């Protein structure tokens, strides 16, 4: 007979123990007479994410609702005093006090009793309004106790705050940097920015460390984009940031899309079927999705055969659909797949520009380089007679040209007002994997170089963008900077000589601009120009912004 696990009636998430173990002992370590502890949360450096030069404040409202209110009420204040004391004492007795011959009666629980009797969390949390940006080294949050007997509680929350807030802010900051890059290329190569909202698509959920990580990171992405396949992030955003939002408000969206199991199942075990997926694509485009947007993964077998053979044979089917067929490769090197494997040494408007304006000596051609002249490929050769480069026109392979150019040759499109090619609206492309900021920059640059508008592609954003991060990616840290002891206020700080990057602020702090804070302040200082606003105080949520408000704040930064 299988033994069933006997779940406890109480939660394993004991609110008063959501911390590192050493936090439990700190109450007794502060100087006698300590009444007040004040700490800041600061992104100290973008050394590991240098392209993220602005930090987006985000995730605090979700944190407050889920942990400081919901969890503490359900698992602490709404339980009996006996339950919460027993939970706390049991854990302490069997862990850090294990083997010392103590009993429950020996465990210090007075502070737990006092907090439960109080009935709320006596803390005040101030934040940079969510969606606003600051530069690295600018505090995004402060926290302090509001009753002197609970001085210990401020930094007791350090672990939980750090654990739950770095990820949504890091992902939101990355997404903001991606959006700014896409906007830059939209302004340079497109007639408008309408496509940008959908141009970076979140595929990260399957690679994240947990469902909660997917929600937190995914919500950060949704501040800058609406394209996502992380459905729980949409639900979480509506739960935590849905106040007064209409039911039809678009937090995030996607389109129908195939996966490799769909494509491979159509072979029905016939090895010869992998040589030509024509019938699979035809079935999907004509019978399953005769209208609307649909993304079809196209590299289950021979991607370039599909591009050069299958898609041209299906041109009439594709062009008569009322919708867009989005070609999706997700293997190989993204910049090569989309833009071609050829390295283009230089681009010239026409042969006259090549022959008259630029010399061999200026460009340093040695022969064999690939150049674009009037949008056509040429290989550089060099003449011993005049020491000037000459060029030979040639036709590259599909792999050398890349997907976007191949689709243009098959389906055509139009040239926009800025002189860049835009694919016909019946066809599009998304690369579904491995895109990060650096690769996106290369892809956009190469498309521009070849005369294509940036709107021709959508980038799938996954683990390379959102999972390869930690608290240290932007150096988030909570540090105590001010105390009151025996009625006297003292500024405190951290300043290790072994690492100047870990230096904290000193005293109370106010943020007066996205790139400026003032510290060494005290309780009598003027905070009228402080950008930090109170979001939580004495058990109450004081700010309840919706995601649209936050999105607009971010766009205005």
Describe the secondary structure blueprint for this structure:
Elements (H helix, E strand, L loop, with lengths): L20 H6 L7 E10 L11 E2 L3 H18 L3 H13 L16 H9 L4 E5 L5 E2 L6 E5 L7 H4 L1 H32 L10 E3 L8 H12 L8 H11 L18 H6 L12 H11 L5 E4 L5 H11 L1 H6 L4 E4 L5 H6 L4 E5 L2 H7 L2 H4 L6 E4 L2 E7 L6 E5 L4 H4 L1 H9 L1 E3 L5 E3 L3 E9 L1 H13 L7 E5 L1 H4 L9 E10 L2 E4 L16 E6 L2 E6 L11 E5 L2 E2 L5 H10 L1
Parallel strand pairs: 6-16, 7-8, 8-15, 9-10, 15-16
Antiparallel strand pairs: 1-5, 1-17, 2-4, 3-5, 3-21, 10-11, 11-12, 13-14, 17-18, 19-20, 21-22
Helix pairs in contact: 3-4, 6-7, 6-18, 7-8, 11-17
In short:
By secondary structure, the protein is α+β, with helices and mostly antiparallel strands. It has 20 helices and 22 strands.
What does this protein structure show overall?
The chain is built from 20 helices and 22 strands. By secondary structure, it is α+β, with helices and mostly antiparallel strands. Among the domains are: 15-168 and 474-556, nicotinate phosphoribosyltransferase (Alpha-Beta Barrel); 343-395. The strands form 6 sheets. A 7-stranded antiparallel β-sheet has the order 18-17-1-5-3-21-22. A 5-stranded parallel β-sheet has the order 6-16-15-8-7. Strands 9-10-11-12 form a 4-stranded mixed β-sheet. A hairpin with a 2-residue loop joins strand 17 (476-485) and strand 18. Helix 6 crosses helix 7 (211-222) and helix 6 (158-189) packs parallel to helix 18. The longest helix has 32 residues, at 158-189. The chain starts with 20 loop residues before the first helix and ends with a helix. Residues 1-9 have low confidence and may be disordered.
